[in-house]
Design a protein that fits this description.
Blueprint (H helix, E strand, L loop, with lengths): L2 H22 L4 H22 L8 H22 L1
């Protein structure tokens, strides 16, 4: 298993854990999903900025970071509005 495979597995585990928490615990589904997304964020940052497959200033890296922040914003708007 490659380094980036483990990062993807960690991100997936965090988000799935948040979804399961939203389903199985007495919190809303959207709150569980928001918690999962926030807990996955350090892994995303690590893969994008600390050990990226391309240089951190590459346009794809900037685009991925923008998409992730947009995803977090949408999840939080759905969860808390």
């Amino acid at each position: 298993m490659d380094y980036y495979d483990r990062i993807i597995l960690a991100i997936t585990t965090c988000i799935c854990g948040g979804v399961l928490g939203g389903v199985l615990l007495p919190i809303s589904f959207s709150s569980g999903l928001a918690f999962g997304a926030v807990s996955a964020t350090p892994f995303v940052y690590h893969a994008i900025f600390r050990n990226p497959p391309v240089t951190p200033t590459h346009p794809e890296v900037v685009g991925i970071a923008a998409v992730w922040h947009g995803l977090l914003a949408v999840v939080f708007l759905i969860a808390f509005l």
